[in-house]
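Sample pair:
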Amino acid sequence: MRGDNTIGIIVKECSEAIWRILQPIYMPVPKEETWKSIAKRYYELWDLPNCIGSVDGKHCRIKKFDTTGSLHYNFKSFFSVVLMACADADGIFTTIDVGEAGRFSDGAVFKASNLGKLLDTDKLHIPKPTPMPNDAFDFPFYMVGDEAFPLKINLMRPYPKRVLDNEKRIYNYRMSRGRKSVECAFGMLASKFEIFQRPIMCHEDTAIKVIKAACILHNFIKMVEGHFSVPQISKNQENQCTNREMSQSTNNHFSNKSAHELRDYLKKYFLKPENLKFVNTKGSTSYTLPKDNTILCEMIHSGVLVLEEDITCRWIQ
């Protein structure tokens, strides 16, 4: 029988080889065309225009590393290392960063990660702003994150709960839908590899290599054997996607806008009648939307209309 040290060396070297060989194929550095294809897929599946990914952090449970004290002890009351990841619309990891101590927040981990640093220095090859469907202004491509992440031009986050009104609630709901892809990716990762069901008991560098190997194998399985969701998209929506890719506005752009102004504009965009669909729960009869967004929000807030999971609303009268 092989000893524990020998098995540990085998696991470490095998995980390192898996990452080294598969990463260039199944998790390459995204290029401009890659971001554009992700954005198109996001609009098809999640009805979120110009979105190029969702980011989040996962605490991977570990047995406390030697000489680290309480460094990896997190707010959930166990020891962990953080897997910071960005996923596309189908739950495939676009980029990952592993190894930060569990005591740090997602925002701090993101800031220290390669993804956060490249986003701050505009080195991610993100495409130039382009109009969203049913709109004439060039809007930046962006990722979505939860409240723990900073608000940036290329990173949208929800409004704080303490300042919510009707319009902001709808915006937060749309952002929540966009974040489902990375949450589903974490769920699939944990269900595929049982190592995430219990503490990882190995040295720190080995644990990091094992997590990275699991992530790249997740991408491999998803791309080779997985089944992609088939979007329900009409011909009109296809034309909108094509027009969005082909149109290049020269005068209408947001190059001088702040991240807060961009978020406010996106909030208003979601409330345009042509960007919301309402159906009757008792039949297929569609209702004419009020042109005044204030009235629309009041109808939702009062309970006359209720948001559904697929960004439709139902009448309860």
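Strands lie at 51-61, 80-87, 93-101, 130-131, 138-139, 142-144, 155-156, 277-279, 305-307, 312-315.
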